[in-house]
Write a structure and sequence with these properties.
- It is a single chain.
- By secondary structure, this protein is α+β, with helices and mostly antiparallel strands.
- Among the domains are: about 5-110, no CATH class; about 360-365 and about 510-585, no CATH class.
- About 30% of the residues lie in helices and about 30% in strands.
- Strands 1, 2, 3, 4, 5, 6, 7, 8, 16, 24, 25, 26 and 27 form a 13-stranded antiparallel sheet that branches.
- Strand 22 (about 480-485) and strand 23 form a beta hairpin.
- It is elongated.
- The two termini are about 60 Å apart.
């Protein structure tokens, strides 16, 4: 073993019995940086006393138990060492053995354990409260209430339209007659002359008729406004946040830099994926019982699965078949195979069974699923998510190409990717009722224009196109939309379709080869290999390695007794072992 140096907060220390410590690296079930735990760091004498005082500093104005202490391990030459940056974790497992001896656990700084613990420790509402999220981070999503009027409403609309039209026509005829009368009365009759009294009387009737006609027009406009309000409530807005902003704001709070070509691709101009959190109020209106400090917000609500950063990461790992990695203060979020880049480390060609000089292996057959389902959620408050199933569900069904006895087929199982977000509906056109009402209000616009007070009632109907259709102002969960400027992007359901998620992200999970990729692995367990600290540093951020035959492999777990130059590993090789599959897609 090469010379190892330990530094607590930059000061050289000498831990007791470090040669008996064990390092465990565990990637199993994930592709992000390994869980790394060194089970024991024990400091004694003056170093132990100083550490004890540091841990208890919360009693005297210091940071106390719940802030770790930087700890670095170096090996090799002083001017070019291999190093491991971690921190002493006092929040679990710390032991005071006596006044001058302390034992605690060493973890990796900003490693996977740290992220899971910290990312669930704050909500997006807290980030808004702290000013990290502001109104500038919200996207205003237009929505309209849509429903099909019943027969009685249609009848009332038809009768109202008929009566108003008839009244308007009758009054126009009457106005024409009054104008004719006043013209006739003002024409002198020879030899009688001008009938002044008749002219004055007719003029008074004309003025009254015009006033009545104006009153009828005003009544028509008001009735039309009521019809629009009842049948087609005006466009309102709910606020949300882009998926990328949810990641970026949490990273900003955690002092991390976000890197993600995946998130960049869904945040381009005209293609912004926006999450609208659960809503318990009308857009732009204060909820009943809320105090005067209430304001419209777009952050996830407490009942949303995206309430915390950890919830966002977990949800969109499922949506995009993605994983993350923390490296040097950078949070990387990509489709899971992005991280399958070899470190250059080659697994030494040793036998798993050293006595018999043979390798034994198994296969990941327990991971195969005959049915792979991807589905977006329903929102019981918005009937559109129940009525319109376009793009909501996708299923890939795997079955054997060749069978002899179908009763003995063992290709079974279900993999379900349930996304706790519902798909919205874009209003692409006017309904028949809206077209009828638009014709009516267009006439009303023309009349008000003639009277010198032009309205734009028809515009209120037309500008509903491009909004989100909703059967309620309220929602019980998150909804996803794709925004193109101030309106929803066309072809919402095609862009967000579950089948698109398969085509772009999930197909790599198929056991059948698709575009040169498959999910079949040969498994190797408990192989003992030569291993040193330099190898440990090489694998800190990546478990992608190679066999001596040049095949890509992944180390799933590694256990290394520090003072031994050997480690025991479990690993798998991406190698085909069955090609008797055909796949059917249902949507």
């Amino acid at each position: 073993m090469a010379d190892i140096r330990h530094y607590r907060n930059g000061i050289l220390v000498n831990p007791r019995d470090f040669d008996q410590a064990k390092i465990v690296m565990d990637w199993e079930g994930k592709k992000e940086a390994a869980n790394i735990t060194i089970n024991s760091i024990r400091l004694v004498a003056d170093e132990g006393k100083a550490l004890r005082d540091r841990i208890l500093s919360g009693l005297t104005g210091g940071v106390g138990f719940f802030e770790g202490e930087p700890y670095r391990i170096e090996v090799g030459e002083l001017n070019n060492p291999a190093s491991f940056e971690g921190f002493l974790d006092f929040s679990s497992g710390v032991s005071f053995i006596d006044e001058c001896e302390v034992e605690c656990t060493l973890k990796r700084e900003q490693g996977n354990d740290w992220l899971n613990e910290v990312a669930d420790g704050f909500s997006y509402r807290y980030l808004e409260n702290q000013g990290i999220i502001t109104d500038a981070d919200f996207i205003s999503v237009p929505y309209v209430i849509n429903y099909i009027p019943d027969g009685a409403q249609l009848l009332i609309l038809s009768i109202s339209t008929f009566l108003l039209t008839k009244e308007l026509i009758d009054n126009i005829k009457s106005l024409a007659e009054q104008i004719g009368d006043i013209i006739a009365g003002a024409t002198p009759i020879v030899p009688i002359g001008l009938n002044v009294g008749q002219v004055i009387l007719t003029a008074i009737k004309l003025i009254a008729q015009i006033a009545y006609l104006v009153a009828v027009v005003i009544a028509i406009v008001k009735l039309v406004e009521q019809i629009i309000e009842q049948l087609m409530p005006p466009k309102r807005f709910h606020k949300g946040m882009t998926v990328k902003s949810l990641f970026a704001k949490a990273c900003e709070y955690l002092d991390l830099t976000l890197e993600s070509t995946l998130l960049d691709s869904i945040d381009a101009s005209g293609n912004q994926w926006v999450v609208i959190p659960a809503k318990n109020h009308r857009g732009g209106e204060k909820p009943t019982g809320a105090d005067n400090s209430w304001r419209e917000t777009g952050v996830p609500s407490p009942q949303d699965p995206l309430n915390t950063f950890a919830g966002v990461v977990r949800t969109f790992k499922d949506v995009f078949n993605a994983d993350f990695q923390l490296k040097d203060g950078v949070f990387i979020f990509e489709r899971r195979d992005f991280f399958e880049k070899t470190t250059g480390y080659v697994i030494p060609d040793t036998f798993i069974d050293q006595e018999k000089l043979i390798d034994t292996n198994s296969f990941n057959t327990d991971e195969i699923r005959a049915n792979y389902n991807i589905n977006w959620a329903f929102d019981n408050q918005d009937l559109n998510t129940l009525d319109n199933q376009n793009g909501r569900v996708f299923q890939a069904v795997l079955k054997p190409k060749v069978t002899i006895n179908p009763k003995l087929t063992t290709l079974t199982g279900l993999k379900e990717v349930s996304i706790p977000i519902s798909l919205a509906i874009r209003k692409d056109s006017l309904t028949v009722i809206e077209q009828i009402v638009r014709a009516l209000v267009s006439a009303a616009d023309a009349l008000t224009g003639q009277l010198g007070n032009p309205q734009s009632l028809s515009g209120k109907i037309t500008n509903r196109i491009g909004s989100m259709s909703s059967s309620s102002h309220f929602s019980s969960g998150c909804r996803m939309v794709v925004m193109a400027g101030s309106t929803l992007q066309k072809n919402q359901r095609q862009i967000l379709a579950a089948s698109k998620l398969w085509d772009n992200y999930h197909f790599i999970n198929s056991f059948k080869i698709i575009d040169g990729k498959h999910n079949q692995y040969w498994l190797y367990r408990e192989q003992k290999i030569p291993f040193c600290f330099e190898d440990f540093v090489t694998l800190l951020d990546n478990n992608q390695v190679e066999t001596e035959g040049g095949e890509p492999a992944q180390i799933e777990s590694l256990e290394w007794q520090i003072w031994d130059n050997f480690a025991t590993i479990n690993y798998k090789v991406n190698r085909l072992y069955d090609d008797n599959f055909e796949i059917t897609f249902l949507q």
